[in-house]
Amino acid sequence: MRTLLAVVVLAACSPNDRDNPAADGPSQPDTSPDGPPPVELSRVYAHDGRVTNGGGAATPSALYLLNSATLATTKIGMMPELDTQSLTDLAIDKNDNMFGITFDKLFSINPQTAAATLIGPMDINNATSLSFVPSDINDPASPDILVTASSFGDVVQIDPATGTTTPLGNYGMVNGMQIVSSGDLFGVQGLGIFATVDVGTEDGPD
To answer: pLDDT by residue (tens digit) across 106-122?
Structure first.
């Protein structure tokens, strides 16, 4: 059963939202002929997984830029540096540094070229989601920490410089069934951090 889990942590919904002074609503850009060009306030990225083709050949994961108005995608590039693994999620800090994970490794990613650089292995299995959240849940302006959740429900903090992990907890159980990550963590300013999850059965996650 797919469901949405709310984790009570305040966070911004994009790298730039914490520093956005237009807290009551976005300011309108000057669109007059003599006015400056509109400022790009945010960017939306997407990725796909590694695809095995006929004959044993494989197409690596790729990074895309998504137009949020039209949903059109522009392919930035492939990530052969992931080797035989697929990218499972992306996260961008408030300084626009991009990170990506496979099931057990952390990479830095160049958002202009999609080039991926291995930072290090992570002491977690089946990591499926990645997000930056405030280190102080009572202070949205606090320094970010990088966290991931797994398909076993484990949640860990990741050192973005080394990939070293620190356990934070587990999503827990509901009606005797394990709550597990189904692939997403995301922040909504003023509301908190939310996660998409699966609720397992006696035979395991469904």
So the answer is: 999 999 999 999 999 99
Total-model pTM: 0.73
Tell me the pLDDT band of 34, cut-offs 50, 70 and 90.
Answer: low
Report d(CA 41, CA 65) in Å as an integer. 14
Residues 118, 68, 74, CA angle at the centre, nearest 5°? Answer: 55
What is the distance of C-alpha 151 from the center of its chain? 15
- Residue entry with tokens 């990591």: 127
For tokens 């050949």, what's the residue? 57
Torsion 77-83-85-89 (CA) sign:
negative
CA dist., res. 140 & res. 134, Å (int): 6
